[in-house]
Amino acid sequence: MRLIPTAMIIKRIFQILLSLSLIFPFLSCENLQSNKEKKTVMADRKWWKEAVVYQIYPRSFKDSNGDGIGDLKGIISKLDYIKSLGIDVVWLNPIFTSPNDDNGYDISDYRGIMKEFGTMDDFDLMLKGMHERGIKLVLDLVANHSSDEHEWFKQSRSSRSNPYRNYYYWWPEEKGKPAQRYSFFDVNSDAWKYDATTKSYYLHYFSVKQPDLNWENKAVRDEIFKMMCFWFDKGIDGFRMDVIPFISKDTTFPELPAKYNGNFGEYYANGPHTHEFLREMDSEVLSKYDVMSVAEGAGVTINEAMDFVDPDRKELNMLYHFDGVSLGYLPGEYKAPDPKGYSLVDFKTIYSRWDSVFAQKGWGTIYLGNHDQPRMVTRWGNDSPEYRELSSKMLTTFLLTMHATPYYYFGDELAMSNIKFDNIDDYRDIETLNMYKQVKSKNGDLKKLLENQKISGRDNGRTPFQWDSTANAGFTTGNPWLKINPNFKTVNVAAQENDPNSVLNYFRKLVKLRKIELTLVYGKYTLLDKNNPDIYAYTRELEGKKILILLNFKAKNTSVAIGDIDLSKAKLILSNYNEESSTPMNLRPYEAKIFELE
Ligand code: ISL
Ligand code: CA
Question: DSSP letters along 140-160, please?
């Protein structure tokens, strides 16, 4: 049984309160009240709330056989490194059999291991090695769509009467052209692909090789649920669920309702049966295991988020939103960075609003980078030689001191930065390659596109991990599948391992701090000096303990106003500068400071 009934928890809290009032009859009602709140917060402790998740893009972590592609044996050879970070959970991007149209997000066999990555024996060894080290493993569930090379789709497209026909969404040509649906990875942005064999269109929200699975069909849901159980029975500890809000569609496929014009992502996330399907998934699968689940919350607005993660609804544990990572792009243009940069006040507003959603109930996540995003330090900090390390440490401080489970992207612990390719031939990502074709076919500004991609392109976050300063950064003895950032000579694990002030060791210190200081996990978040355009300041509070976090997001000296907070007993517990400054409220460029207040 995964959840203890609320009534039992309440009863237990009541018993604790009663016994406290007997032992300490002098406690005032006010004290009792605050004790009750504390007990409630702490009664709801969960391992996945206290975890730091480390995301590994397996293709780029470590190649064991010289084919230039990272693999499971490579991960196994680096388990001690992963352990040394102090993290609790590894999330691996898809490792299943795939023709790799979208680097594994197009799965042709959900129970097989991608041949470039290794075998099931390698997988079992890797999982064992992680568990022996106290690390949990979360895999990627890509169930909104499969590969067109999946047996189900091969059957489905073969004839209109095939038993697998309804595993996907088909629109017969005699009904005319279906209403427009937008595809993320289609040269014409068209999510309907005509298939001559059965004279019908099939739906693909992503590439033509990623047909959407028909979740209305119970047989499809059962296949997915059985597959999830297969991996849980092997011992994995959870799933990150790819575009899971998109699984339910209005199968009449009407014209896009006007209010969603330009917001097709929000429309996709608003299918009629999404929550029904998720509750079914909980009752048939998730509730039977002690595992974590996190939705990629594409298209989910702040008002809808709680519906996915409210524990009373028995759906998912967590969700990650896109409001943060969407900031600083020009409106109306896809991932074109605003030359003015982003506004820190807006950034603070977004993260504070999202914190308030989960202040009482549910649980949040926090991230600044992943395999779909550029490198954290380039996008949110400053990747110039002068500030790369400082700003990266500052951003890491932010991620590990917020009231949410941090999802930390591999390589950010070294302050790896965007590679900024000049040439389209260097890109491998289907998204960039398609955008290029699209802009080209419209005689658009290709130079501009390439400049934008230097900031926003996904391949920036996918370049191989930088282990040392030897050939190919120690990632491979062969030709890497994607070019390695030339800064690997100085930015690498070996160079940082023994330097106590390195970005890497700063990350380790922060992980350790979060592990021992539950105030950083469960403590109430309060934003300070909210209109300060340069500094992000906030406190975290739990059980009488208060921690103050000050972060300078700018390359200049600047000051912060923290109101009536008493600093007389403040103790600096961590900072990214070596010398403590004499004026604590004046921050140096990208300075990050954590104070214990009481
Ligand atoms: O990456 C994006 C834009 O650059 C997003 O729109 C992304 O396509 C969307 O968030 C869904 O992402 C997930 O599903 C995709 C896959 O390509 C991404 O890597 C994955 O994270 C299709 O499976
Ligand atoms: Ca390999």
Answer: EE--SB--TTSHHHHHHHH-T
